[in-house]
Specification:
It is a single chain. The protein is α+β, with helices and mostly antiparallel strands. Helix 12 crosses helix 14. The protein starts with a helix and ends in an 18-residue tail after the last helix.
Length: 495
């Protein structure tokens, strides 16, 4: 069947024809699914990069057919492997009549092996002159939009395996993702941090303000949660005497989904004893600029339409001063909850009744007016204590804490503290979280008595930070959606 004829058939007919071809192969004792191994000698990119050494030499390659041109007794096909694609010249004179007839029946999407010698066509295209062609896997379902790439974003995310086949730039993004993660680990190792793993299943939903996923442990008959963050367990390790720890892993938050949020996401948290949030700023600045330079070869990048300079020397400004810069409102002169509520009403800033304190309203002002203006890397420091239950208070301003968040391109990329190590203060803040949850705040954390116990054993002065790695990878790969940097983003089933 010609490609033109195949294109005119609907999907069910196409699949029926392909299954009939498979049945015929099996009847002739050539079931491709029984093949267990195929020995390749080269990949496509190797052949192209080393043509002068390989010209006229035999190679064995394998890959998926992505194009085929039948011209009577001689044909061309293009196969794609993990590195690139390469053309092959196939003729009846080299294969023999039976094998050439079998080749002509192959479909786009079939996976084949080819042995032959390397040469250039009259148009100077590096190719493989086939001496033998073997069908390794029969594709029973045709690729969508075979010659134009897969553009339906919903289908791309649901069928990433197809997306990777027909859109080569997608694979490039995930190759960069792997390189970025490798460089992050190298940076942390060079700084003396130990990589650890902590549980994803927890008995207390805490570590950040977020709605958790709830599950049940059958053997223990116990309600459990997928972790919001690994923070408390990592700080337990600091208590235990491991002075520098980091973890790269999945966190889970049962919240909304958009271009910046996926219910499960990859983050890194790191903690260092005897350091504070200023040291964490230096770490973040060094980490991101070094990774960008090592992976991309520059610290000056373009994200969508924004020119961003990641060169160290990032701006550092308090949340209250940043609000004053943008709006003119100075919360240093607004001392009570009532005054804060009044200015919020005047400026049209909305807040929840259970979050009506001065501290919560300062945060609402920041998110409403300031966040989107922070294009170049900026550390926003000194957050209200009400929104920072795990953070050490500032000595001179106990209503604030030693905390910062990192913003680039109008988005938050990291959150860091001088960690709270006062067990009495921590217990009281946990209790306020419990009270908030009882009043209906679904994002409020619970009481973790064992963590308070750990603090009573003694947590040294510690700095800690969490970085959303999916967002960082979005930035460094110029990807507009978090779904573009996650192989299998969360999707609602079609059925």
């Amino acid at each position: 069947m010609s490609e033109n004829t195949e294109q005119e058939l609907d999907l069910n007919q196409l699949m029926k024809v392909r299954r009939e071809k498979l049945d015929e192969l099996k009847e002739n004792g050539k079931n491709p699914f029984e093949i267990t191994k195929f020995n390749r000698t080269h990949l496509s990119k190797e052949i192209k990069d080393n043509y002068e050494e390989l010209e006229q030499k035999d190679v064995t390659i394998a890959g998926r057919i992505i194009a085929k041109r039948i011209m009577g007794k001689a044909s061309f096909c293009t196969i794609q492997d993990s590195t690139d694609k390469i053309q092959s010249y196939v003729s009846i004179n080299d294969l023999g009549e039976e094998s050439y007839k079998a080749f002509k029946a192959f479909d786009i999407g079939d996976i084949i092996g080819i042995t032959g010698f390397v040469f250039k066509t009259r148009t100077e295209e590096i190719s493989v002159h086939a001496k033998e062609v073997v069908l390794l896997t029969k594709s029973l379902r045709p690729l969508p939009e075979k010659f134009h790439g897969l553009k339906d974003t919903d289908l791309r995310y649901r069928q990433r395996y197809v997306d990777l086949i027909v859109n080569p730039e997608v694979k490039d993004t995930f190759i960069l993702r792997s390189k970025i993660l490798k460089e992050i680990r190298k940076f942390m190792d060079d700084k003396g941090y130990m990589e650890v793993e902590t549980p994803a299943l927890t008995t207390v939903a805490t570590g950040d303000a977020a709605r958790p996923f709830i599950t049940h442990h059958n053997t223990l008959d116990l309600q459990m949660y997928l972790r919001i963050a690994p923070e408390l367990n990592l700080k337990r390790l600091i208590v235990g005497g491991i002075d520098k720890v980091f973890e790269i892993g999945k966190n889970f938050r049962n919240e909304g989904m958009d271009i910046k949020h996926n219910p499960e996401f990859t983050a890194m948290e790191f903690y260092s004893a005897y350091e504070d949030y200023n040291d964490m700023m230096n770490m973040a600045e060094g980490l991101i600029s070094t990774v960008a330079n090592n992976v991309l070869g520059t610290t000056k990048i373009t994200y969508e339409d924004l020119e961003i300079d990641l060169t160290p020397g990032w701006k550092r400004i308090t949340m209250i001063d940043a609000i004053k810069e943008v709006t003119g409102v100075d919360f240093n002169t607004i001392k009570t909850d009532e005054e804060a509520q009044a200015i919020a009403k005047e400026k049209g800033v909305e807040y929840e009744e259970i979050k009506n304190t001065r501290g919560h309203i300062i945060n609402e002002f920041f998110e409403t007016f300031v966040e989107e203006t922070l294009i170049q890397p900026t550390f926003i420091t000194d957050y209200p204590v009400e929104i920072s239950p795990l953070t050490k208070r500032k000595k001179e301003s106990p209503e604030l804490v030693e905390r910062f968040e990192l913003f680039i391109g109008g988005r938050e990329y990291g959150n860091a503290y001088s960690e709270l190590n006062d067990p009495i203060d921590q217990y009281e803040r946990f209790m306020k979280q419990v009270e908030a949850k009882e009043k209906g705040d679904e994002e409020a954390g619970g009481m973790d008595e064992d963590f308070v116990n750990a603090l009573e054993i003694g947590l040294p002065p510690t700095g800690g930070m969490g970085i959303g790695l999916d967002r960082l990878i979005m930035l460094l790969t110029n990807s507009s959606s978090i779904r573009d940097v996650i192989f299998f983003p969360t999707m609602k089933p079609l059925n």
